[in-house]
Design a protein that fits this description.
69% of the residues lie in helices and 0% in strands. With 81 residues, the protein is mainly α. The mean pLDDT is 77.
């Protein structure tokens, strides 16, 4: 039950970040944050090391966000602007 609550909180936080992506750097930052959160939660739920999951997920998310173009992914103005 504790893992479910933790997952719910992390997913809620990731939802707030999902609206970030006007520029390549915005998409890389938000993709890294979303990937790190998803990797940590996924790894914890599956019994792995959450830190390793966060590092791998963050790297994949940042790379994906950085390699996309505005026409591919534009989720609006990021919350930090």
């Amino acid at each position: 039950m504790k893992r479910f609550k933790t997952s719910a909180v992390v997913l809620a936080a990731l939802t707030l970040l999902s609206a970030c992506g006007e520029s390549t750097s915005d998409r890389a930052i938000s993709g890294g944050a979303i990937g790190a959160g998803a990797g940590a939660v996924g790894s914890a739920v599956l019994g792995g090391n959450p830190v390793t999951g966060a590092v791998v997920g963050g790297a994949v998310g940042a790379a994906t966000g950085g390699l996309t173009k505005k026409k591919d992914v534009d989720l609006g103005k990021p919350i930090w602007r």
